[in-house]
Amino acid sequence: MTAEASTVDAFHRGRFHLVQPKGRGHRAGMDAMLLAAMVESKAARGEKGLRIADLGAGAGAAGFAVAARIPEAEVSLFELSPEMADFARRSMALAENAAFNARMKVFEADVTLTGARRNAAGLADDAFDHVIMNPPFNAAGDRKTPDRLKQVAHAMEEGLFEAWIRTAGAILKPGGQLSLIARPQSLADIIAAFGMRFGGIEITPVHARAGEDAFRVLASAIKGSRARLSLRPPIIMHGSDGHAFLPEVDDLNNGRSCYPRRQTGKTG
């Protein structure tokens, strides 16, 4: 792979760097940073250990953002594409990421696997405290890109949320948290896939500006919880004038704050 085929990009004001494909494939942005912000440190509650699984990790932006912000986080990146997994490994090798790269692992794995094959791929049952995911979001009828690497990252297959959330339910510890970011059009499929596996669902719509339709939703849920669904106040990214992020969104985007759950999500 030539140097021209990739770029090294700084995130969180230089706290971590990411090797990404240049001119093709999926390049990380705000979605990955919002997803990473949904992971809360357990140290503030006096708890030790925080094992994170990033499903469909791509080059690893969300997982790297978690590892860079939370000192106790151990992050496993699961990615189907060997090429994108290689970008994540190259990022781990960067000197700029030396402070936390020992707490990260990369697995080439199909997150839709089941049973023993899933366990053999590194997706072990009841092993993780928090699962994060940013699944492909383009519907089958959307115009397909000629970029094969991008198409794999963006193309939604039928039953995708059911398969990915089934895996999350298997690999999370009881009481563990699943967090994801998706298009609002997928909300019904997401809630249906949570089913009896998850409860305490929290939904947050994300709007570019006040008065505009939401273009993303953040969703979180707790394995085994029976708490009711909660619709949280929206996140508004920009003011009425200009394209700068509002201060609270800029803090999320740059790892200065997190977006914790409001419910405890206790099981039982």
Question: Mind explaining what this structure looks like?
Answer:
This protein is α/β, with parallel strands linked by helices and 268 residues long. It has a single domain (26-252), classed as Rossmann fold (3-Layer(aba) Sandwich), CATH 3.40.50. It is built from 8 helices and 11 strands. Strands 3, 4, 5, 6, 7, 8, 9, 10 and 11 form a 9-stranded mixed β-sheet that branches. Helix 1 crosses helix 2 and helix 6 (160-171) runs parallel beside helix 7. This is N5-glutamine S-adenosyl-L-methionine-dependent methyltransferase. Residues 42-185 form the Methyltransferase small domain. InterPro entries: DNA_methylase_N6_adenine_CS (IPR002052), SAM-dependent_MTases_sf (IPR029063), Small_mtfrase_dom (IPR007848), tRNA_Adenine-N(6)_MTase (IPR050210). GO terms for molecular function: N-methyltransferase activity; nucleic acid binding; S-adenosylmethionine-dependent methyltransferase activity.
Q: Which percent band covers the strand fraction?
A: 25-35%
Number of helices: 8
Average pLDDT metric: 91
Biggest β-sheet description: 9 strands, mixed
What is the radius of gyration computed over CA atoms, rounded to a whole number of angstroms?
Answer: 18 Å
Structural class: alpha/beta
Give the strand tally: 11
Q: Considering the protein shown, what is the CATH homologous superfamily?
A: Vaccinia Virus protein VP39
Q: Using the 3D structure, state the CATH architecture.
A: 3-Layer(aba) Sandwich
Ends apart, CA distance between termini: 51 Å
Shape: globular
Report low-confidence residues grouped into runs of 5 or more.
none
Number of domains: 1
CATH class: Alpha Beta
H-E string: EEHEHEHEHEHHEHEEEEH
CATH fold name: Rossmann fold
Residues in helix, %: 25-40%
Keywords: Methyltransferase, S-adenosyl-L-methionine, Transferase
Domain Methyltransferase small: 42-185
Protein name: N5-glutamine S-adenosyl-L-methionine-dependent methyltransferase
GO molecular function, one term: N-methyltransferase activity
